[in-house]
Design a protein that fits this description.
Elements lengths: L8 H21 L11 E5 L5 E7 L2 H6 L11 E12 L2 E2 L7 E6 L5 E8 L12 E2 L4 E9 L2 H4 L11
Parallel strand pairs: 2-3
Antiparallel strand pairs: 1-2, 3-8, 4-7, 5-6, 5-8
Length: about 160
Amino acid sequence: MRRLESYSKWQVQLFCILLLAGIITTCSTGTRSSSFSGPLRLSVHLPDGTIITAETATTPQQQARGLMFRKNLDHNHGMLFIFSDQTPRGFWMYNTLIPLDIIWIDKDRRIVFISENTPPCPSQNPTECPNYGVGIPAQYVLELAAGQAMEHNLKVGEQLNF
């Protein structure tokens, strides 16, 4: 095996560039394992024809974090929580910095409850944050920036497509 000192400077640089390119290619094109936790995006079609670009929250970790610590949420963007079953789901606004419209959706993708302009919880104590939607059975929950439900005239009973 040759020692590194026996290679010219440009050969060492070329080797480093090729090694780095190989690492980047492997990382960017490698297959995702089932533990991949990056936010996948889904299009949610509202009854008025608007398409919402929604990050999905499918794992318990993603669902627990939700939109916490976000300082803004772009217009017509949101987060869709996808659960494996339909059951009552309570949501809170602990560590959420922006007001949200929270929309509970049943297994048939019909809106069953809307909490409009849900305010952030001002407390640093999670036990002091109110829960919203308690007792409402839902399989999906969509969070949008506050005011979006009114802007798109969303109503209980309407169907969303995604």
